[in-house]
Write a structure and sequence with these properties.
This protein is about 15% helix and about 35% strand. It has helices at about 70-75, 115-125, 155-165, 195-200, and strands spanning about 5-10, 10-15, 35-40, 55-60, 75-80, 80-90, 95-100, 105-110, 110-115, 130-140, 140-150, 175-180.
Length: about 200
Amino acid sequence: RILERYGMTETGMSCSNPLHGDRRAGSVGPPLPGVEVRIMGEDGEELPRGDIGALEVKGEHVFKGYWKLPEKTASEFKGDWFITGDMATLSEDGYVSIVGRGKDLIISGGLNIYPKEIEDVLNDQDGVVESAVVGVPHPDFGEGIVAVLVGDQALDMAGLESACREKLAGFKVPRRWVQLQALPRNTMGKVQKNLLRDDYATSFS
């Protein structure tokens, strides 16, 4: 069985589904003992439970700062709270669910779009091995949505678009579709969405 958890280099492990207890698929569980979390809005105020916002973490496990980078350290702390860079929700009973990286947020036509929501739909479709959704410049909407997919065969892009229209609001449906042999990854195995944004930056120009 999979035990979903959440941590990062700067904090170590912060949240975990219980080994014996209520494990929730798609959630990284509640904060560990001694760890505090909060979800913050763009106005710097803490958001109500269930709202999507910026995840901040506090506790003795949080590192003290970046080596010889005082400006970067200052920019990523609010007092004792560390700004993780992740977008998340916090349930009424304290379970954290990660929505995506803040830097990957797409703003199209003034509306916030979280790539993970679209990727979850795409990854459930037959033939799709994995997907990455990115926002690139769009002359009318600020950003347009590009879906980059890896499949075990030639993918039916029209069918994938129809599936998205069935499950997502219209403004969340990708406008450009690309199939690759593999997604670009760094040495840690993370998908390099910055490279995809660069590669398809002129999709709507």
